[in-house]
Amino acid sequence: MNSDGVAGGEPLTDGKWAGWAGWSDPHPDTFLQAIGRGYMRGVGPTSAQVALETRPSHRNRLDTLHGGFLAAFADHAYFGALWAMGHKAQIGGVTIDLNMQYLGVGRVGPDLLAEVELLRETGRLMFLRMLITQEGEPVAASSATVRKAPAAR
User: Into which CATH architecture does domain 7-147 fall?
Assistant: First the structure.
């Protein structure tokens, strides 16, 4: 675990996620355990990518990715993306609103990729949007507002 309270954080050096930073919660009994370990990388000062390997526990009774899981992944991906963009203190922020638009059927097996963009930042808020794809096909789009973590005193 690094000083941000994030397990991992350093870029991985081998395997399919080489060049990405791993993201997992160091606490064993949190909701993040249901989502799984994510991978993130900054793409620019206002954009990042967050990826996740899908697994059978993410499916619904139709054998496709559950919409609630996709929304939870989106919420997770916003904070991973902010971390990857260099806003590391914001992992202590909170989601004010999260909107989802489901664009296609997600399948168990292929990795999810969230492309996240920071649209605007004010003194207390960050406005973001993302597109979630699987194998290049859109699965969902999202927008969110994050209230920044209180400044350390």
Answer: Roll (3.10)
